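#struct-help
A.M.: can someone run this one for me? Single chain, 173 residues.
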Amino acid sequence: MVDGKRRVSPPDGGWGWVIVGCCFMVTVCTRAVTRCISIFFVEFQAHFGADYSATAWIHSLVDCTTMLCAPVGSLVGNRWSCRVAVMFGGLLSSCGLLLSSFTTSLELLYFSLGVLTGLGFALCYTPAIAMVGCYFRHRKALAYGIAMSGSGIGTFVLAPAVQLLIELYSWRG
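D.P.: on it. Structure tokens below:
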């Protein structure tokens, strides 16, 4: 007992595997989507009449904002809860992605897709990873391995799907 409270060890399973599955999906939605943004480069160049370096800023801003704002996700998760941080991040990144489909200039795309979506991803990514550690002690490496594999598996699945969707509906669809 510590200060009259009993310490409970992580359960190493049960509900923790649901958390691992959810973290897997968060890494698919954040890291895999971020990697698939480069598929849109040719479409952005053609639509906005921009060169490669101008369109490359979009991917750079998403990735940079996600990683630089990761401590913000941690702060929100500690202040309220990881659930609130992930839900708010999902809402923010969804708004950023939706707003991106209506942009009329590359600069607006920098903000909507680069900054707004990147901030939403940051609010999702860090708390989701932190939650896995709360539910595992002995099988922590396995749990983290499964959760983080969402990045690679998601990229493997999303890349051809995104290419097909671009061909069917254009980049705005």
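A.M.: thanks! The radius of gyration is 18 Å.
D.P.: also worth noting: The chain is about 80% helix and 0% strand.
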